Amino acid sequence: MVVVTGQATLQVAAGTLPRQRSDYPMANLSTLWVNNRNRLPDSITYDDGSMVRSILLLSPQTFYGPSFAAGFFCTPPCREFIFAVFIVFTSSGALFPVAVNEVIWCANRGSPLGEDATLELTGDGDLVLREKANGRLVWSSGTSGRSVQGMEITENGNLVLFDQRNGTVWQSFDHPTDALVPGQSLLQGMILKANTSPTNWTESKIYITILQDGVYGYVESTPPQLYYNYVVSTNKSKRVPTTVTFTNGCFSIFVQSTQPGNPDGRIALPEAKSIQYIRGILLENNTTSNCYLQLYCLPQSATYSLFFCPYTKQKLQTKTILVSILAAIGALILVVVVAIYVQKRRKYRERDEELDFDIMPGMPTRFSFQKLRKSTEDFSKKLGEGGFGSVYEGKISEEKVAVKRLESARQGKKEFLAEVETIGSIEHINLVRLIGVCVEKSNRLLVYEYMSRGSLDRWIYYHHNNAPLDWSTRCRIILDIAKGLCYLHEECRRKIAHLDIKPQNILLDDNFNAKLADFGLSKLIDRDQSKFGVVLMEIISGRKNIDISQPEEAVQLINLLREKAQNSQLIDMIDKHSNDMVSHQEEVIQMMKLAMWCLQNDSDRRPSMSMVVKVLEGAMRVENCLDYSFFNANSVISVQGIPSTYSAPPRASILSSPR
């Protein structure tokens, strides 16, 4: 049996299961987890005092964002835990304490556990939860002897036990508690039962269930009291169970139809653009209150409510109804008063900030929203999109520009303009130039110079059937990147770290001159050197840092570099698409040594960017005694599994790249 005592051990526990990113979404049989902070160090305590201790984590493809994880969870004072699936935020695979996590499934909601409780995926395929004090069995998946081969948390938040053929033996989606996520279904006979309160996981008396002809809400009693229903008028002839699926912004109800896009009925949900989930909530903690579903939108943490109104034929107490009506009227009056006050405050604040904008020195050109809408032909030519918005091609006074429309700017106008002023004042031949800005009401748009050949990844990953870049062009691009970083680190008025150096954020003009984009305000300079080393190796080898199309031993580029360096086989790392690269192999190998210098695990041994520029210009040599225990800049752990000092980088600037 493997006893998991940390993330490094968890990688061993995963054994032959493939790891595609810096997460750990799978586990093998005969693995034991102990609910103890020292035994499960990948844990986070949130501002409200709640805590998660993750045992499985599936990170998003993006650098930062919401992720699904499974593990132990508690609310303050954290003396009782549940084994649950929850949504957390991660940065490069590391848990990131920026928002309270949300539980979407729970195994033992009525029987919480204490410290040192155990979860075991047994050798015969049963997932077992036990109390530490007496070994009492608290919960089991009941899958012993059913050919289970492993456990996985999927990209849509489903905890799955799978067999040799990757078939599902057991899944949490078949046992919903009080929440649904997109793509999850409630089959006929299943129920969604609200918790007693946000901190009390025991089941309340309010539940929603699926019957043959639609959705029903009940108060648990003898007999159950009907509270809500949504009936689909259709003749049930097929013997398939009625299904309700949370998808496409609604509850799709399938009574007769079995076509995914053609339900027999729909319950519309409030529109939301980000990741959502639905939770059953009690309006008040008693059985005569309204029950409703709440729609959660992440990462904005906004919530919308979909009320399941009381069934009109029920005999509700007159006093309760009267109190509810008076409370609603009072709340409405309060909302109107507050809205008027907020509107006036906003009007005065916007007027003040308009004046602030005009007097701030060094600001780039200001454009109206209408002008940018016209210059982009109503935002019709999309060049790409990133974590904070989409980028569109435009034309201003016959000059092509890239217009970025920010969609999730959380900063106030003053903070946004202050950052624009700082970024706009930075000018360097190897940095993408910020031309202008638009700040009107909630609209935030940035206008950048247009880079005709797009981002570097298009030219080194061979996704567009392009000819390989020759060695001299790659050398020039590498020098341009180094000079841009050197300016940000050491020469500009305010020291800035890029923090997200990657081919997608390196843009090329007609002549393949490189410019950096997506640089924000921060001071963790050392991290840039290691990421520069990774990009340098990607340019040399013509592949991604993490490439799951490669054989298992070659998926991680930096691991492969370490192996080839130790065996004096660096020539194997050269991009074989280019004969010119192969013909310059001695120079290419020297460039690899510069990359290895930047990748030193000890940050004190990495060169500054000015030293890197000197090496590239021939004024300095690479250090000879290099340690092959490289820092993996795409992970929060080093290649050898030693925890890095850079556990969670700060939130990226919203002034990100134009393409």
Automatic annotation (TrEMBL):
The record's catalysed reaction(s) read: L-threonyl-[protein] + ATP = O-phospho-L-threonyl-[protein] + ADP + H(+); L-seryl-[protein] + ATP = O-phospho-L-seryl-[protein] + ADP + H(+)
Kindly indicate whether the keyword Transmembrane belongs to this entry. yes
Keyword field: ATP-binding, EGF-like domain, Kinase, Lectin, Membrane, Nucleotide-binding, Receptor, Serine/threonine-protein kinase, Signal, Transferase, Transmembrane, Transmembrane helix
> What domain of life does the UniProt record list for this protein's source?
Eukaryota
Q: What is its main location?
A: membrane
Bulb-type lectin domain location, by residue? 48-174
Indicate how the chain sits in the lipid bilayer.
Answer: Single-pass type I membrane protein
- State the PANTHER family in the record: G-TYPE LECTIN S-RECEPTOR-LIKE SERINE/THREONINE-PROTEIN KINASE SD2-5 (PTHR47976), RECEPTOR-LIKE SERINE_THREONINE-PROTEIN KINASE (PTHR47976:SF30)
Give the protein name, as stated in the record: non-specific serine/threonine protein kinase
